[in-house]
Amino acid sequence: PALMSCPQVQRALLALTVPLEMLQAVKGRMLQAMRKGLSRQTHAQANVRMLPTYICSTPDGTEKGDLLVVELCQSHVRTLWVTLLGDGNQSPQVMYKIFDTPGDIMKGKGEALFDFIAQCVRQFLAGIGSPQHRLPLGFVFPFSCRQTRLDKAELISWSKGFSCSDVEGKDVVQLLQSAINKQELYHVDVVALMNDTVGTMMTCSMGGEPCEVALVVDTGTNSCFMAEAQQVEMVEETSGRMCVNTEWGCFGDDGTLSDVLTPYDQRVDQESSSPGEKRFEKLVGSLYLGEIVRHALTALAAEKALFIGSSVAVLRTKDVLKTQQVLEIIDNEEGMAKARGALEALGLRPSERDCCRVQQICRAVVSRAAALCAAGLAAILSHMCQSRELERLVVNVGVDSELYRGHTRFREILQSVTGLLAPECTATLLPSVDGTGQGAAMVTAVTLRLAAQRREVDRLLAPLRLSRTDLERVQVLMRREMELGLGRESNANASVRMLPTYVCGTPDGTERGEFLALDLGGTNFRVLVVRVAQDGIRMASEIYVIPTAIMQGTGEALFDHIIECIMDFQLKQDLMEQVLPLGFTFSFPCQQLGLDKAVLLSWTKGFSASGCVGQDVVHLLREAAQRKQHLGLKVVAVVNDTVGTMMSCGYDDPKCEIGLIVGTGTNACYMEEMQNVGTVEGEQGRMCINMEWGAFGDNGCLDDIFTDFDRLVDEKTINAGKQRWARAPVGGGCAWLRLPGLCPGRFEKLISGMYLGEIVRHILLALVKKQLLFRGKPCPKLQNKDIFQTKFLSTIEMMGMGMGMAVLTVPLVRGSDGLALRQVQAILQDLELQASFEDSVLVREVCQTVSLRAAQLCAAGLAAVVEKMRENRGLARLAVTVGVDGTLYKMHPRFSQHLQQMLRDLAPNCTVTFLQSEDGSGKGAALVAAVACRGAEPRGQPPLSPQ
Ligand code: ADP
Ligand code: MG
């Protein structure tokens, strides 16, 4: 109480105390300053520079090998030899040597400085008798640099007493490498340059859990953290993370800390070698704490609150009170004695009360440093939490600080204030042991690991990356197969069947009436009624279940069931009394013999009803109607889903003359000139051709595009091998039947939803086997077929799209990066995969590679189609619309974009618009029926028998 009674001391203590609200404000300002440093527009003027370090990964424990580190320190050069064993970095072996820097070198020529460093390296290596194999070197250079690569960094300006000529503005990595070469140490390779802060972060990562923030509070102060690369606008990289060196010592140089500063701080600043600069550092760094206390004591003595009766002139001398002494004085047990000792050493004669007050002042100064440091750290944590869109951030923070290691008060305040200011984050502070040296070795090792991994990943994925030439060749091959498929004689040998559909016109808007539609072979079986009127199309539909027993039973039972469903639907819709024309969407490969005559070539999608293959499905339906005594059935058209898609989009856009499906499978149809359709009699007009392009390549023409992964997928599909066809007599003509026991097509396996997930799964397994993913840990669950679903590709590829253009163009993409990343990790966790952030990024790269290839191959196929149509019509330019359906196309965040881009590239003379179909199967079937009822009977005769 006696202490408290002195108002001058009270006032001083109050001035040195930053209340919580003020700390909150400081945190807010730090956040703002950080954002300013990250933004491309404001980076140059920012006080908190937020320098990119090009360090994009933290250690994962697999790093191994010998590494060399050179650290340039204030008064010495330290060289280290670090051996990592790949054991999770439990026990790195370290040898080091310290070389004192001659004083004249720090202010001499730049060349002399680097020659000296290189000589240290040579001596060190000679001393340990190092082998001559290639030695990667990490260079710790604790000055502000403008870094453009991990091994390229221009010195911005010297500090810390250095002022060598001819170095500012130069690449210091280059300078060191040249000096090393001059020493004929050609096997030593400078691979990374880093700041001391980064080193701290890296060593604290060594335990296994990544450490993503580092705090240095020494003579100066600085920090770094793993930022989302996308937010570091100074670098092009937008995926993954990058360590950013905040250079936060200069925080406040624009005056933002003026309400925190005391008159003592102003005096410290004025007497320093850089007045007005490094304001934050001067509040926190240990170089200044003694000085702040000295000025506080001087002021209090002048106010007669201290040392009454002593001469205090000694306190006017700079640096008479060392920070070390301040730290001893704050100690609970020894502090008072230390205060007395320190003051008496200055020639003062302190009373007991003086010692007490001095101790209070010292504590206030150290506490304030810890609290301000906490405000800065809280800003970093909140920034990370926000930019990763987490509700809660759990993170390790490496701390390199004598203050933190040695002083409970500093440690406790730092910890508790950080918790108060960033309550949404749980930060574990880890003291670093020789952060700089070993950390530098880690950075170097991680760099090497990443470079080696990158080479291996690229080698593995290279076959999946198609060149433009590859795609042009696919386009040419598709064109050739199309011609073969259309030719009367060559049809038998074509892998693209080019099946006639007897649909000879697209809607023209004059269609009217009420129609029934059936949709069999999509995801659900449905019955619909479709009313086509002047003001648009209205539909009502009902989904019916087809029990597995019926799918795999007899054909009679299947078609009886279908008729029962139709009758049920007509009853419910009150349509029993009407005879409505019916369009039948039947999404299985059929040889069509007329608009209402379609011979089933093979069942797919789990159907295997007996007695149907080789039969006309309309006939089977009519027979069932008769059995069920349903007399009001008028089947006018059988429609493939591709055709339905084209027709339904054609209703809205008369230019729509192509249909495309990219769902479970893939297929396309388009309007071909009758004179080119060798398999159907008649030369007039056009007919829609169902390409059945999924089978493209079944004759082996795509084999060089097939990768080992595709072959694995192929082998694992039931009935692997080529799709073959056999001729079978049907009715009056002859149809081509897919031979039983053979799998669907090659092209489809590279493109469609049924396979993309499987391709990715096989690649992931290969990456794990090569220790490039999930630290090479075995992934038993990933061994299961189809466990990696194609819809995962969509989710995973959304990660990193953040706020980019894609969000604007793809309305399906919602949410943000943080959310997407969590979804990715949730997916991988479900597969019992322990994914680091880098793992997630690599998995995404695999997905992107596979989906990009699919989209590009699809584009090559379409390019063949549109170019053929353009040539058919003798046009210099063709404008055409593609109606598209299929969940892969609709849901994948980039598929359509890549498809369209590649198509523009491959078919520059065609302007192709894409229109997503809505319920192509239902609406499309009705429209085929409507178009058929609109005009005359469709042109064309039954097909001729192929030779
Ligand atoms: P179908 O082709 O049987 O008519 P769809 O067009 O709905 O059916 O396609 C279903 C297929 O789309 C699924 O088998 C799956 O492979 C794929 N798929 C489903 N969801 C997604 C998604 N979100 N992103 C990409 N592909 C998906
Ligand atoms: Mg479908």
UniProtKB/TrEMBL annotation:
Keyword Nucleotide-binding: yes
GO molecular function, a single term: glucokinase activity
GO terms under biological process: glucose metabolic process; glycolytic process; intracellular glucose homeostasis
SUPFAM superfamilies linked: Actin-like ATPase domain (SSF53067)
Domain Hexokinase N-terminal, first and last residues per copy: 9-205, 457-651
Domain Hexokinase C-terminal: 213-446, 657-724, 746-931
Pathway given in the UniProt record: Carbohydrate degradation; glycolysis; D-glyceraldehyde 3-phosphate and glycerone phosphate from D-glucose: step 1/4; Carbohydrate metabolism; hexose metabolism
Protein's name according to its UniProt entry: hexokinase
Source organism (scientific name): Spheniscus mendiculus (Galapagos penguin)
